[in-house]
Fold these 4 entries.
Entry 1:
Amino acid sequence: MPLASSVRAALAASLVLAAAGALAQNAPLQPRELPARRIPVPSTVSPELQQLIGQPLRTGWNTPPTTPEGWKQLAESLRAAAAPNVQAMRERLKVRVEPGTLGGVKIYTVTPETIRPENRERTLVQVHGGCYVLNPAEAALPEAMLIAAIGGYRVIAVDYRMPPEAYFPAALDDSMAVYRAVIAKTDPRRVGLIGTSAGGALVLEMGLRAKQLDVPLPGAIASGTPMSDSTKTGDTFHTNEMLDNVLVSPEGFCDAAAAFYANGHDLKDPLISPVYGDMGGFPPTILTSGTRDLLLSNTVRVHRKLRNLGIESFLQVYEGQSHAHYGRDDRIPEVREAFGEIAYFFNKHLGK
Amino acid sequence: MPLASSVRAALAASLVLAAAGALAQNAPLQPRELPARRIPVPSTVSPELQQLIGQPLRTGWNTPPTTPEGWKQLAESLRAAAAPNVQAMRERLKVRVEPGTLGGVKIYTVTPETIRPENRERTLVQVHGGCYVLNPAEAALPEAMLIAAIGGYRVIAVDYRMPPEAYFPAALDDSMAVYRAVIAKTDPRRVGLIGTSAGGALVLEMGLRAKQLDVPLPGAIASGTPMSDSTKTGDTFHTNEMLDNVLVSPEGFCDAAAAFYANGHDLKDPLISPVYGDMGGFPPTILTSGTRDLLLSNTVRVHRKLRNLGIESFLQVYEGQSHAHYGRDDRIPEVREAFGEIAYFFNKHLGK
């Protein structure tokens, strides 16, 4: 190596490796220019997960509906298309699913073959995802079935009202109504909240709302890849764009749906973007994401926020996974692993 | 939205959002084709960290030395260039640094202005990074100074032999010699190991080696963005390529250095790539990485491995950070935050 080149490299590397470089002040912030790349499916995950990771970008990711009727039609089409898969999952997981109402809200009670003895006095409230607009009725159930079966828990799944029937804050109001009905009969320390994506945001919003209303907080919260910032802010909205094959882009499907739900309300309201809320006093929380998740930043930002408040908060990030891959199908080993972690978390932190 | 398009979207989305899609079997695994992109510096980190994130790719990242003499020359240039910054950091952090030898190995003893009362009987052993080849002498010290000052710990920093003076397993042998000398005088449950990058791998390798030698394990391990897989395997080697401005690419500087250290030895040996080792029985471990870290996958793979063994393991992932940004400079708020987390972890898990 020529000396001049060595010295040049040394000067650069001294900033990079010696962990003691002076900070440039007021330097202009240059974006990173990334060349086009081909990203292989990783060899470091199960064959079943490789199949998910290898799927192309979600069809129609950049052509969301533009009318209330279009959203409703899409939600219904999805529900119908999902129904057989939900049914098959229910059979594989051997859970019982009973529709009902609680606190005036439509729910499903999901019961595993065996409720674990330590969970007899405990209840989980599950709040489904789907960008606040999708997954009505049984399409809401996979996460509830997974945690019921893998954790041995009784689960109340909230089938909250959605646009165009009801806009913000209907989803939150309905979830709170169910939660309040549950804690009327069960010590809140024995009640856990669980949700993914919009549901991951809603369980955080429920904590914020409970504080506002002086309602007791639950004993533990599981928030998966939360839509914690609906203002499209966060580094992985950019770095994982076109890599995450579920959400694909902040200019895609899900942020359009969140805006449809907000119905003109400020997207930075902590009850829509909970990363901006005051989470002081929150119970122990587990957060789950993946390295390709468009919402990895929205997940780690909540984790840092909770940790900086001194709250017990546990982060799980799964290799190669896009948004909410961790809850996709019970036959994927990493899905059973993720719900095993969540079950372990609830078991450790909920009141006995 | 036309019905045909709606149904097509529905069928795709049913796989995507309802979490219950059937798994395609034996489908060919398609890579993801990413277009060229411009990634802005995130607004979601401190101004000080923004300066680091906005730095261009490390100069000379793809032209590592090709001869032993070139590596030695580079290491010496880096050491000399880093020295003033290390000195300034030492003064800001008000730590005392004393060179010495322990177990026949060169060390520095790093002492904070005040050792916290609960840490009087505790010692940390710090094993520096630098791709197994760089950061001799005082260039090794920033991490040791950060945890000494922020955690109130006495720290022994290992200045292990490096190529071309000594190849694999010299770095590990020297680190073990120091560790054995420390635990000869201090209950191993009161001894913590801390390292980043190659040092993050070495502290894991020390756990594996201690098991082989029937030496007692330490009380806790802090492994930052470990080079846990020197075979260039892991999803973020690809997804964060050209985004991480420190390591830049698996075809860059650091993997060339690791191969130089291995000196022909199998790179998949768990004592070089500890993710392949049996970590059963490991003590509590904290792992630290960033969303842009080329080694994010190597970090989360170790986290999952430890968790699946039932070991208490805590993952911290920082917004927007490239490889080892979290230990760069004590004036960056997120650096103090990260070392605050590590100090909290050691305080909670080391024997009193």
Entry 2:
Amino acid sequence: MNREPYIAGDWGTSRLRLSLCLGECVIETRQGAGIGALREPAAEALRPLIAGWRQTHGSLPLLLCGMAGSRNGWRETPYLPCPADLRALGEAALRFEADGAPVAIAPGLSCKSRLGSPDVMRGEETQIAGALALHPSLGIGHHLLCLPGTHTKWVCLEEGRVTDFLTALTGELFALLRDGSTLTQAARAGTGGESSDARSATGDTENGFESGLEAAAALGAASLLHALFAVRSRQLIDGRSHEWALAYLSGLMIGADVRGAMPLFAARAEAVLIGDSALNELYAQALRREGMTASCLDGEQCALAGLRTLWRT
Amino acid sequence: MNREPYIAGDWGTSRLRLSLCLGECVIETRQGAGIGALREPAAEALRPLIAGWRQTHGSLPLLLCGMAGSRNGWRETPYLPCPADLRALGEAALRFEADGAPVAIAPGLSCKSRLGSPDVMRGEETQIAGALALHPSLGIGHHLLCLPGTHTKWVCLEEGRVTDFLTALTGELFALLRDGSTLTQAARAGTGGESSDARSATGDTENGFESGLEAAAALGAASLLHALFAVRSRQLIDGRSHEWALAYLSGLMIGADVRGAMPLFAARAEAVLIGDSALNELYAQALRREGMTASCLDGEQCALAGLRTLWRT
């Protein structure tokens, strides 16, 4: 491991998270706009954010993953097709020089998913590479990984290689339904209000999530489409609170995600969750309900460890 | 049938459609804001829209269905619990006088759905009552009805009575994903652009819908959540056009709706579609793919016929 400082950045669609690092230590962290919100070239958006660090430390190497490598990002970095050995992610990084400093952008991955469609990821491959670096035992045997988020990724890892993966729209769909649908407007507009105060005490938020998981388990052949309206009707008719309904929606969607993924990935006994700790816990709860064990890894730590593998190479 | 003129109104969340009628003839139609967009009491919003008609014809009776009877509407009209005989819908209408004219608001329906949750409708019950009035044979035996729309309703009709129904969020979810998701932003932002011009000729809009139905049929135990990302990746990787992707999304969702509903309603050989003709045709295509026959009724004609049953009583 090099002992010079460097900058590690996870540049997603909606957020940039930059860390000034020395070895495995993070010295300072800054946030910036995501690739989706940029109105100027990525290199120009980045410059003011790291100018101070460069004044102090000189031309710091810059290691990036995520949408920075997309067509709308800084420089398009081709997808690495699966199967892909993530212990050698750095070999496929796009390397160039900018403002006199070396830049490395991690490639995304592409595959043909188990549902027969093409699938892609940008950013998660670096988290997986980091998980492999932090936990080398993940490189031995078969593992089912789940990276929950806006686009949850279910990933099949065999001997350190990603054989294929599948994207679930869980987080994005949850946010769309929470913020813009009639499912949650009922309570907001007060139409479910008259009885909800009295009854919401019986259904707290945690029970809402558990009830959502139960509803997902009862779906059978029915589609999620047929279960969603209950988020509204249970406020309207059962007097459930807005908070309960949001937790129910979350449980319904995470439950449907986990229950739909299990048969596709021929249900192993354990899944490895890589993500934000609160979200990991919700998925772990859904997995336990299906008789699975879940171990949780911190997504940010994995991203940093993955970015370090670009530096080493 | 009374031979005096009257006003029939379908007042939904997003739209008011008022018709000045004489018997079964519509003399004139006007549009207004939906209940969801009102900033003033419903009665006041209505007055200027019908003032001209009243100057000409006197205090016209007003027959309303939809969200006019909701808590946020004009006057709350309690839900009629299922099983409910819709040939007697008028008996459960809320009747009062306003500005010297009689007003009738159709009640909505409530039930416990086959998925075990409460379910509700407002407006569709009047379309079903109209379908029964226009086609009395629907009142004999068992029929599976489907009213496609923002909230698609699957309705079990036995001897003229609605025993239960189930709401699918198909239309609302399609609109949310079309207008606000990353699924369709790829092409809009031009990120899928470089190859899409060349290849979109091979995948026209109609094939997109058919491909979506195919993808829904291949879902198996997987959830719709796992199939949605293909709408984006097939633009990004397969170079599909934005138009193709929207048709694919539509096929995927309508296919999932139909395939999920069939086992719940113990697949009869035929379904009766009540709705807009273009949407009816898409559902009919999905139903035919499942070996079902579909007959189509015009939703607006059914609504008017249903409102007339309020007048008669």
Entry 3:
Amino acid sequence: MQPDLLHRADAAHALQHFRTLSLLIHCMTNDVVQTFTANVLLALGASPAMVIDEQEAAQFSAIADALLINVGTLTADRARAMRAAIHSANTAGTPWTLDPVAVGALTFRSDFCKELLALRPAAIRGNASEILALAGMSAGGRGVDTTDHAQAALPAAQALARQTQAVVAVTGEVDYVTDGVRTLAVTGGDPLMTRVVGTGCALSAVVAASCALPGDRLTSVAAACSVMAQAGSRAVAASTGPGSFTPAFLDALYALNGEAFA
Amino acid sequence: MQPDLLHRADAAHALQHFRTLSLLIHCMTNDVVQTFTANVLLALGASPAMVIDEQEAAQFSAIADALLINVGTLTADRARAMRAAIHSANTAGTPWTLDPVAVGALTFRSDFCKELLALRPAAIRGNASEILALAGMSAGGRGVDTTDHAQAALPAAQALARQTQAVVAVTGEVDYVTDGVRTLAVTGGDPLMTRVVGTGCALSAVVAASCALPGDRLTSVAAACSVMAQAGSRAVAASTGPGSFTPAFLDALYALNGEAFA
Amino acid sequence: MQPDLLHRADAAHALQHFRTLSLLIHCMTNDVVQTFTANVLLALGASPAMVIDEQEAAQFSAIADALLINVGTLTADRARAMRAAIHSANTAGTPWTLDPVAVGALTFRSDFCKELLALRPAAIRGNASEILALAGMSAGGRGVDTTDHAQAALPAAQALARQTQAVVAVTGEVDYVTDGVRTLAVTGGDPLMTRVVGTGCALSAVVAASCALPGDRLTSVAAACSVMAQAGSRAVAASTGPGSFTPAFLDALYALNGEAFA
């Protein structure tokens, strides 16, 4: 089953749609990437809100357009609040996305992520080592970084998609997005992005938001990956290292329009 | 009761005073905006410190020049520590400022903020939806964003100021600062600032610090709004999007002097 | 006992070594500086991971190359997790570094830091007021800022090094790095760095990582100080204030090579 390339017109259409909707995104994410995640969503026209108290998280996921669950700095309190938010989201019909940061080597988050797989995520976004570990096919990467190539994790991503009914995105030099039957490949981006904390976590937030778009979810998630990759390539061209990359990347996301995909 | 425009000489004078005092500001703020808040205060010559343990927060608010309470990522633990800090601040005579982020739709923070109104805040800074909700005149905005114009919230701000004896700043395209009797209007800033997370929260930190200035508090708080608006306008002129805005804004705050208001 | 200047060839050699090792650094640091700390380590080729749950922290410090303990936003939960991580690090032979932020005036962190001194830190990095307070020779600075000069804290640093067997770095206009017998002085940097939150905290993370280098630890820690000072000087030259400093600093760290010390 060879992956197809995402059509440029589909990416352009999804981006245009994304900008018009002012999506309200409930982000329960790790402490390291909150500012960057919020700024990425704001640059794309969405409204992020980071609500973390257990009671408030359950209230808020019911009124948000989408929910992000990122386990990067998981604690017992945060896990309780995330569970409450997911259950409330599922009742309300809010799609939720899982970013299983560093799953594999660390027991608490690994058990938690596996528990969450039964709670019907709309999408899962991880690097190759995370997707392999989540699918039970390896013991994980090195800290938060992958030790595997995205292509090597494609069978794991497809199995995970079939098991959970989620769209699974395994990202790397090439991103693969699959629903277990169809697979789309997304190119672009730059290795410099791995020298800036939170590029993957912020992508997961855009993936979460894209699950609130009407239309084919596989295409929407692949479009989210493509938007970030295109903005990343442009930002690298406009910057002189990982420091100047960040402002250039947010400016690129803010300016990006359909013509970027033509 | 028509608002008066803040006098430029008053803004220039307050800024000059602010820079000379090296104010020590205790910030109990949300997890998303801590870095930006600290950098804004540092650029203006103040010394921020984020102390959050309950016992330490009570110790620190007694020796700080001012205290900021921002409920953006409130938890039960954080609420306890904030209460302890406020009581200690009140005993020591440290002025404290409330930023009621997203008050209205979320029950826990709404109850908490209303409880705090009885604890004599020196100032309250919010967007229109937050000030309307805090005054009991609406159910709040959409997530952390306002769905109302600042001018529409001016009567609520004035009522809230009379009720609490605090200076209330309701910020938006035009900012209004009121003590319930007098009202000052502050212009400047740019809509691009709503595409950068933390500009409002950082303003609240500067408002908190400005409450430690000697002299008329209404004028000091309005001057804080004006300083941020002036730096914002300059930064927008020097940047190409929300990413390059942030470094340009901090540089503008650092460079801003009385001549900017002439 | 006059300090010697760090040899430039030693700094260049340590930097080169640092870049080749892709060190995995477990950062338990304060909420304000996590993003900047991660980006500093990434710019230098290391892999940061912020793991904070008590059980996970103990798992992770055993597999990391080095552990950083920074008490800036200490809470009771965080203190428990830090203790677990340190004990596990000591069992596994992972070197750990203490940044005693604002020790002195605040009781909880002061007691905690003094308890940690018995747990064999590899290195301690603080400003003059922090090192004086930790050595029991003063009551601390003003918030997170020093009120003393680094040179005035050198005897305290040397006493602390002899007491704990740690390499102690007291940083300021000139940095002093001592093992209680030998002392190295490191010049460079710029006062503008005190107007950017987290430059000291990020230095502590680089110090922590440098403790994982083979060879003389005193030299490695002094080299870490020198790398940050050199990049700081270059970034100040390339920037127009504290806002543009941050991207310029990360770019400078990313580009820095041995020739910078020639």
Entry 4:
Amino acid sequence: MTEYFELEWQKFQKTSEEAKLAFFQKEGRIFDILFARQFERKQLDFLSNLATKIRLVAKRKEGADYLRRLLTHKKAMLYFVQPSTRTYLSFLNACHILGIKTSDIRDTFTSSEIKGESSYDTIRTFSSYVDVIISRHPEKDFNQKAAWLLNSTDRPIPVVNAGSGKDEHPTQALLDIYTLHRSFEHRGGIDGKVITMVGDLKRGRTIRSLSFLMKEYKNMKLYFIAPKHLMIEEDLRSFLKKSRIEFYETDNFASVIAQSDAIYMTRIQDEHDNDKEKTQSSYDDFSFTYEHLSILKKDAVIMHPLPRRNEIDVRVDSDERAVYWRQERNGMWIRAALLAYIFHVEKSILDV
Amino acid sequence: MTEYFELEWQKFQKTSEEAKLAFFQKEGRIFDILFARQFERKQLDFLSNLATKIRLVAKRKEGADYLRRLLTHKKAMLYFVQPSTRTYLSFLNACHILGIKTSDIRDTFTSSEIKGESSYDTIRTFSSYVDVIISRHPEKDFNQKAAWLLNSTDRPIPVVNAGSGKDEHPTQALLDIYTLHRSFEHRGGIDGKVITMVGDLKRGRTIRSLSFLMKEYKNMKLYFIAPKHLMIEEDLRSFLKKSRIEFYETDNFASVIAQSDAIYMTRIQDEHDNDKEKTQSSYDDFSFTYEHLSILKKDAVIMHPLPRRNEIDVRVDSDERAVYWRQERNGMWIRAALLAYIFHVEKSILDV
Amino acid sequence: MTEYFELEWQKFQKTSEEAKLAFFQKEGRIFDILFARQFERKQLDFLSNLATKIRLVAKRKEGADYLRRLLTHKKAMLYFVQPSTRTYLSFLNACHILGIKTSDIRDTFTSSEIKGESSYDTIRTFSSYVDVIISRHPEKDFNQKAAWLLNSTDRPIPVVNAGSGKDEHPTQALLDIYTLHRSFEHRGGIDGKVITMVGDLKRGRTIRSLSFLMKEYKNMKLYFIAPKHLMIEEDLRSFLKKSRIEFYETDNFASVIAQSDAIYMTRIQDEHDNDKEKTQSSYDDFSFTYEHLSILKKDAVIMHPLPRRNEIDVRVDSDERAVYWRQERNGMWIRAALLAYIFHVEKSILDV
């Protein structure tokens, strides 16, 4: 980024949280999708219902064709310079569902960066050809900066954060919420449920986002299950206390399985760990085994953001309480809902 | 693949040939497209006629638009981790013809494999977003395994083998059959024709698949022309004898040209040969030269699976008996026919 | 390329300029888009007006849908073995606008070249599946050769040169002309205007193409502003003299800003310069600064082919005379116009 923009950006960074969230809105609606915390209960419910409607309408060919004609005039840029098969495919097929045409850049070598172009100019270039930029980038602030920069031009288009560094991944949070919403649809909704989160709670951003969003729901009870050195961090702990959410931390997974309504498993992200003594097998206590199925509630669900390694026995997959494959598909539906919302066609869908 | 699935897979591998072919069917139709030997005469004729119908209907804009609307609600995954321009483009454009939306992964770096995911999970992930997986993979068994795994889930989708290692490449066999079918349409069909296959008969999988399929036709006469060390292998020889197909092996190409109805040239695949003494020029006797055109029958055809090196003089290209470029296009039409069959819209096409 | 074709190609190369341009025409229309000099004033005006019509029609959903249905039966190949985000995205989205289905090859590793295939065969292969090849290639003559080769087959399809080496980039010239056309639409058109070109005039092919096209316009006045070692080359100088176009060369940028109607900035392409003493800052005199805005005519325009480095202060971007971002979008519109022309649907657009 050029020096001029860098200074302006630093000024913006110092504004209040409230001012920032307002900046990424237009006409009282969320414009850029950057943080999980942009979504309030009302919107979470709305998007979940919209996703379900899209899912049901798409089942029949006539319905699928109706959806596909809604946004034929829109074009999306998928800028995925950080590899991510799952999120990429999910967004691409969400675009397909609504008839959005796509362009993609999946590595940096095809980019003009080698010619010395600033990332500001690269983003403006993308915005010249399309109507929305869906971006996954290893730099923590990249997507937020991109949205901020485009908002200062005379042709602002929305930016959707499809994952930025280890920080934010708001559409993952949305698909987790949607999966809970769907799972508890006939059990009074998410309010009052017991959610158990297991694994790498320190580094896993899905856990963080989901936990922060729990404040939008009533009477939640959360269990955090992790080895001590991978337990949730202090900022989340403070947040939960301040928000008066009931929560417990322990490394005894077996003790809480029977009382959980949802068990959210995560992968221990030790790919880059120096401490080679902590092998995968030392995390066996934080795995969901075939035997655990027998103590799990009949109407509970097992979730996982995927990819998994050994945290869930593959034999669990065929149990109907294992919803992680459905959760993956939910990502496509909720992203389609989000794109429909961004382009103001939600009413045309709900009225079908 | 996880240990659990590996054991189950080994069990499956030990079942009979018949049981295997049945496993990859649903409701009396071929579901997964994995082996050339899945196709019987009836299906070969049917798909050939369907391909021709698609080709003719697509000539006019209204026809092309009719075809393109048939499968607008379907999504395909093109998983091509082994490079193949020709097969990739052919399948992609076959999808375009029928309005199927596509996602593609063309290298392994964008995949989740680096995060330690099993290939089982990768395939299930793909299946979450699409309705068919078209896969080309260097591992011999990969595509078959993928189909087998998906059939054990509650959301099985068909897998199309677009080439797996040196083993099977069923849609290449289909396009070869379709090219013979089209070439002899006004000469009584394929039955009773003399087919000469030239070049690397040991390693070329196209030759093997095509030869095996010859048992579906009557009164065929086959010539195999190759240097001794590249001649067909014993298993094919036994098969031909058992199937009572008339065939001859020789290294004298010139002697059979005049009596051939189709000459199928192939590339000597010596890229990785250690024996550097066998240079390309030492294979000159297994090339189709400009001079050969004068002794070739007036209504014979020259085929080649492509890519070629020096096996066919480029000046032959403009002779109307050279059908290898048409053969390449036939690949697109027969793949479109196959996709139409997979998604049960063949009737909507034939009734046009 | 095989020896046979190489000899034929050399023969073709020796034909007259006139014969060459005629060779790339069919039925009195330009067929292959290879050189900026293929376009005469009449065509430049026609394509500019067509681009404007497309741009206006696409503003409304019904209009966008009308355009998108025009070429649903056509398929394009984007062959971009030389990286170029901008040109790639521009062509891809131009295809999207008209409903053309696309296939792309963006690196050489996925190609059959590794199997020893000639580039002639590669191009013929592409032509088997699609209706137009849009090609960007580092070799100077590649695209021209490709067009020439396909014209000798029984299934010729047009080739569009999307940049070949340092030589020709005709669609960049078209978009520059279109930008001037649009900018001076209400000021009597391009004729009689003062155009100032700044920067690397020796290596920049955009400058060369645009300067050559200036002979199609009346009473032009050109200023070339560059450091001495990057000034225009003798062949362009001779051309301008012969064509009686008024032009001046100087290194004093400031002196001509006030009288310019268009200022065309370009990047100093010193990425591969050995002379490391010439740093970017030594080219400061060839930059458009924020202060320059105050001496620029009220209705002048600032252009740039992009990507830029420091030649234009980012604060200039928000001035309404800065049209380089619009110029970038113009590239998409004029390429859509060109594709509409290639496939003979221009009348269906102009009659809307």
